[in-house]
Structure formats: structure tokens, C-alpha cells
């Protein structure tokens, strides 16, 4: 859990992902299309990835635990929450507030 929280606070937007996950790809693509340069941690490529995946599942209260998106060091959620914020026009202001977007 400590490692997850430490990594989550190192950049304005942090995404924990699996390289083979299509929903993770969708979320990563959305942030890139918005002009955000997130830190991306592919858990299947991390030495302690399984441990981090379990910690994320506890934080999210569900499994699968990816994608897990942190903005400004705070857990925002997974695909459903990110898409809901985006479609509701609330994602961009959140990203600006965190310093992930300039405009």
C-alpha cells in the first residue's frame, strides 16, 4: 500500500495499469488525447506488481483493480468513474486543478 501511495503522489496524474488490459488502454488513451502526460505503471511489468495490484483492489474495494487513476495524489477511480467525470464535463477542471493541464 505504501508503495502505491508513494508512486501515486509523484505526478499530477498516475495510472496503474496492465499492458494487456483493453480498458486500461482506453483510459490511458483518453488522458493522452486530453493533453495529459500521466505516469503509467504497468503492474505486469513491475517486480512488485502483484502486491501493488492487491493494494489497489483494497483501495478500490473491487477486483479487477486496474485501471486505477490518481489525480493530485488522490484516488479518483477506475474506468467507470473516469468516463463519468469526462462525459459530465468534470474531468478537465479536475485535471487543471491538479496541474495536469495548462489551459
TrEMBL record:
Matches recorded under InterPro entries: GlrX-like_pln_2, Glutaredoxin, Thioredoxin-like_sf
One of its Pfam families is Glutaredoxin
Q: Taxonomically, which superkingdom?
A: Eukaryota
What region holds the Glutaredoxin domain? 13-76
Coiled coil regions, renumbered to chain:
none
Cellular component (GO) terms are:
cytoplasm
Q: Where in the cell is it found?
A: Cytoplasm
- Which keywords has UniProt assigned to this entry? Cytoplasm, Electron transport, Redox-active center, Transport
Q: Which Gene3D superfamilies match?
A: Glutaredoxin
Its family remark reads: Belongs to the glutaredoxin family. CC-type subfamily.
Q: What does this protein do?
A: Has a glutathione-disulfide oxidoreductase activity in the presence of NADPH and glutathione reductase. Reduces low molecular weight disulfides and proteins.
Q: Which NCBIfam families match?
A: GlrX-like_plant (TIGR02189)
Question: Which PANTHER family does this one have?
Answer: GLUTAREDOXIN
Q: Could you identify this protein by its name? A: Glutaredoxin-C1-like
Amino acid at each position: 500500500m505504501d508503495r502505491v501511495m508513494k508512486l501515486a503522489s509523484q505526478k499530477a496524474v498516475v495510472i496503474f495499469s496492465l499492458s494487456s488490459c483493453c480498458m486500461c488502454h482506453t483510459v490511458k488513451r483518453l488522458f493522452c488525447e486530453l493533453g495529459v502526460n500521466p505516469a503509467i505503471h504497468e503492474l505486469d511489468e513491475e517486480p512488485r506488481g502483484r502486491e501493488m495490484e492487491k493494494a489497489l483492489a483494497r483501495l478500490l474495494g473491487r477486483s479487477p483493480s486496474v485501471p486505477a487513476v490518481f489525480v493530485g495524489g488522490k484516488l479518483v477511480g477506475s474506468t467507470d468513474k473516469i468516463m463519468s467525470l469526462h462525459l459530465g464535463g468534470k474531468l478537465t477542471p479536475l485535471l487543471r486543478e491538479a496541474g495536469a493541464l495548462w489551459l
